[in-house]
Structures are given as structure tokens and as C-alpha cells.
Amino acid sequence: MKKNKTTHVMSAVIMLLFVVMFLTVSGRFLYIQGTGEVAGVSLQEWADSRRTNTHEIKAERGTIYDRNKMPLAQDRSVYRVYAIVDDSFSTDPDNPKHVDNPQNTAEKLAPLLDMDGNELQSTIENGIENDRFQVEFGSKGKELSQEQKEEIEALKLPGINFVKESIRFYPNGVFASHIIGFAQNKDITNDDGEIIETIVEGKTGIEQQFDEKLVGTNGSISYKRDKFNVKLLDSDEIVQQAENGKDIYLTIDQKIQTLLEDSMNQVVEQYDPERITAVVMDPKTGEVLAMSNRPSYNPNDIGKVENWYNDVISTPFEPGSTMKIFTLAAAIEEGVYNPNEQFKSGTYKIDEITRPIKDWKKTWGNISYEEGIQRSSNVGASKLVWEKMGTDTFLEYLNAFDFDQKTEIDLPSEQAGKILYNWPIEKLTASYGQGTTTTPMQLVKAASAVANNGNMVKPYVVSKVIDSETGDILEEHKTEVVGNPISAETSKQVLDTLETVISSEEGTGHNVYNLNDYSVAGKTGTAQIPDPESGGYLTGEENYIFSFLGMAPKDDPELIIYVSVKQPNLDLENYESGSAPVSFIFKNVMENGLHYLNIEPDKEEQQEKIETISIPEIVGQSVDTVKQDLESLGSKVTIIGKGKTVTNSSVSEGDEVLSNERILLLTDSSITMPDISGWSLRDVLRLSDLLSLEVEVVGSGYAVNQSVSVGEEIGQEQSVKVEFSAPKQDDETSESTQEQSVSE
User: Is 725 one of the catalytic residues?
Assistant: First the structure.
């Protein structure tokens, strides 16, 4: 009985425990069924996440264009290779989807990635040992081209896969690099060091300044799938489209920029200078058409970069005698400049300074103030400030020309120069560009008032921001007049005087900065370079910054160009002056740039006996008839192709052109390369526009060599290298006076 009672009690206890457990489990089940949650986690959401694939849709970074919609920076598709090393990813042993043979994979893959086979095999095996799902191969496995990807795919290696990515590509290489800047891929990794996202980030230039506008917003696509990763029929697909970045249009003109880059390259090759800076601007609008520095860099291949700074806007320096432009303008505006008044050149001493101001030449005797400007006399500039207008008045003009502030150009890292004006000696040296510092961009901005009837314009390089998908203009930059430091009458008188710096035999720019077809107004500069060790200035005939600020055509300037060359290696044995490398750049870019812009030559000898003609109907007409009609009017006609009918032309019906102008006729047959010997750059550029050619310009003057042979068939976007050379002038020798800006 006793045993029976114990059995009954234990049975009751067990039954009670079973009931409690049953009620607990049932209750939990009912709770989960009712709430759909476990530990605060929604079962529906958890299930959806386990069977939902989500992929990111990459947004494209906006393209940077020049003023004519030539791409200067754009995205290019590349590939990143990775290897799946987790064997659980393979469901069919006969068709593995993971790396099943690390040694074989490494041996075949290594040559195509330019890697050591043992290193590659070690990377795969380490991933297997550490239970990694996939591994990558560092920088060697990134940024693969389409051709490289196809070569690897042809090996049919199990487990080798690719991720499509974008990198920033700069089609012109070393080209306005300090303006455009560059952007690089930046990997975002998780705690395990795995790359979870790659973004493109602007580092310098426009890429940095407008990064927020250029970068887009990524989208996504998600859908439900089964355990084999196959998309379900009822997949509940959700697509959120990517929003691409905005396109940036620059004021830069690719052809003028090319002229500048090629000219600078030739000067670097011949003279090996320490630095070159150059900028080309439209003085009426403030649009920067070209800007470059040396040393520069190729944004496609960022290795050892000698100079990250955009010296045109970021490196103030003592400008030397180009500053006399503004001393002259201030004196004329104040009514104290008499071009015929005489003064004694050589030295100038006032009581407030211990040592006299000196001209770069011992003396020219008594000369006029106009001759003082032509000869770049420091004494003349100093007397205009100290005796004629007064130092306080001159300071007001320096401020009115904005030499005390940044230009506010739409580029990063701009620095402003400093007006050094505390002591009497500083007030004198400021008149001819010593002590006081400025940037090339500040000089060009100030010179716009001289070239533009007294209206000083703000320089800019971004013309508009465009929605890349709709084409809508989101932001547009326009001409902004930021000051009127001088009157229109003064600006005309300054231009007339500066023209004599080039045309007068006494001028420091005589026979150096003359152009064939256009008159030039400008001022030379030879600035001394501070010597940190001595506290003074460097000595030696090459230790200067040689520069020129010029405007053309003189009566109505369409372009301002500033060029400076620091410490070139000159041929001193043959008396080569520092103006030689500067004038090569200036003349090449200014002459060819004005022709390219269709600016009519203003030199009288170029206009004699040249009339204008109106172009008749051309397209669709007989080639022989059109050629005969145009040649009868005095035109030079070049036929491209072997067809009998004109299909296109470099001119249109109704155009008014000079009677001696070259006209290109395109026929309806195969296109072949014409003989362009003796052609001007203007004619060659018209040919490139008509045939959509990429022309590389070398030298200046007239065409002497072409990389594509005469009669060879050519296609669109084909590259043609054309070498130009100036015509020989047996009766003319080029002599110039080397100006040195010296003060003590």
C-alpha cells in the first residue's frame, strides 16, 4: 500500500508538470501566433529578410564638360575580381561555384593580374582556413578593363567572379589638371575588413569644389527568392531608382586650353623652368578660357606629384613691372599723368629712404613719362606715386583694383596677395611690383578694367550646372561687374600707352610680343625672387620670374593672357633674354586663339584688298560648280572626298566671310585626309570641327607636318597630330631688352 501511494503521488506530479509545460508551450505558441514576434523581432520581417535579395543601384557621378560639351572628366566602367572560397556555395559537385583548386586557380589567374602565383594562392588558402566566404586580391584585382575581364572569364575558373564599378576618367590626361582636379575611389569596409561599398570622392579642383553636386544618390532593387537564390514568381520586387549626379559645364575651351598646354610643354622641354603659370580670360565676361601650371600632373595616374597647388590662384608672388599698368591707370584717372613731361631717369632718392630707387639700366638721361612706361622705369613709376598723385591716393586705387582681396573665383584654395604699404620704401616699391604680392588671377581680374572700358569683372570657370537626366539648368553663372576703378576714357588711354610698349623701339616688348595679325597692349615684368637665406633677392640673369600681361586686339580686347616663367635655363652665350619662353607661349596662344574665335585681324596691312563675300547655296550642289564659283570670288577651296556632290561645308549659306578665306567642301564619298601643308591653325581647327577629328597641335605658325598621310581614309574621333612652324624671316632679327625690376 505504501508503495502504491508513492506511485500515485509521483504520477500526479509528473502529470502536473506535463500540464504546466503543455500550457506554457501552447501559450507561447498562441502568443507568437497572435503577435507575430519573438524576442521583439517580427517573424514576418525576419522571414522576408532571409528570403529577400537587395542590390544597390549605383548612381553615376556627373560629367565635367568644357564650354562646347567636350567631356573633361567622366565615369568609366571597370571591374573588381573576387574569389568565392566557401564550399557550401556549391550545390552541384560536378559544377562547383567556389574555388575548388587554389593552386590551379592561382597559376592561371596570376599572369593576368600581374601577381605572384604563390602570393595569390596564399590569399585564397588563408580565406579558406579563416572560414571566409570570399577573398579579394588588393590593388591588382581592382580597376580591370573590359578586355581583362573577358580574358579571365575565358579561363572558366570556378569561384572567380566580378563586381562592376566606376572610376573617374580624364580623357585628356595632363589638361587643366589644377582646374578639373581629380576624384578617387574610396573603399568603405566593415569590421572584418571586407569592402561593403566603394564611393568616388572629389579630392581637388572642381571635383572637390562641386563634389556634392557631382555625386549622385544610389538606388536599390529588392525581391524575394527561394533557398536556391532563384527569384520567386510573386517576388514583391521594389525598385528605387538611382539619382545620378549633376553635370558641370566649364568656361574652359578645349581648343584654347590645348594651345596653352602644348605651348607650355614645349617651353618645359626647351628651358626646364622652375615654374610656369598662365591664364586666358575673356575681359568682357570674366570667363576663364584656359588656365594651367607647370609642374602639372595626370589625374588618371596619381603618382609622385611635384605641385598640388594651382599657382594661378594659390601662390601669391611679387609681380614686378606688370604692376606698372595699374600705377599708370591711377595716374591717368587722377589727371596727373602727362606723357610728354620729362624726368631724370637712373635713380630717385627721397629723404624718407636711406638708399635710392634704381632703374634696371644706369640711366637713359632725361626721358618722358611715356618713354618711362615703355622702358619700364622704376624711377618714373615711383615719381608718379610720390610726387604726382600721393601715396594715400595710390593705395585707394590698389584697393579699388581689389589687390587686397581674393577674386572669389569658383575654385578651391584661393589665396590673396598682400599690399605691403607701411613704410615709405614700401609705398614706392609697390608702384613697380616689389614687396607687395599678388596672384596671376588678381592681376588678370584687375586688367579686365583696363580692357573693358573701366568695368572690372569677376573671373569664373563654371558656367552652369545641369540635371544630367532632364537637361534642366539648375544653376547658371553669369558676368558680374565687381568694380569700376577707372573710367572708359582712362582705359582707352592706358591701352594706347601699353600698345607703345610693343610697337615703340624703346619698348621692353618691342619685336618680342608682336603678333602677325593683331595689335597688342601689354606690359612686361621681370620680378626678383626673395632669397630666404640672405634676406634679400636671388642674383644671376636667370633667377627671375619673367612675365607678360597682354591684351588683344588693342582697341577692343577679346582676350587677356598672363604668362610667367620662373627661372628658365636660358642660352646666355647667345644673349637669350627671359622674355623668349614667355613670348613663345603668349604669341602662340593669343594669335591662334583669336583666329580660332573668329576675331577679325585689326592690323591694316592684313586688311588691304581683302573684301567679304556672301556664301551661296552649297550643300547638295555639284562639287565642280561650287568650287568654280567660290574660287572666282577669291576663296581657297579644299575638297575632301571623291564624291560629285557637296554634303557639308565649313561655311553655311548666307555666311559673310573674307574673300581669301579657306573653305572646306565635304563630298558624299569616303573621307580621306587632305594635304594641310601651309594651313593656319584656324583652318586646321575648322577641318577638325567638320570631320570630328581630335587634333593635337605642336608649335605655332603654319602646318608643316601631319601624322595622317595625305589620301589616307579617316573616321570620326580619329586623332591627328599637326606640327606648326613660323615662316622664316631672313630680314628681321628679334632683339629685346631684358627688363629687371631692382630696388634697394
Answer: no
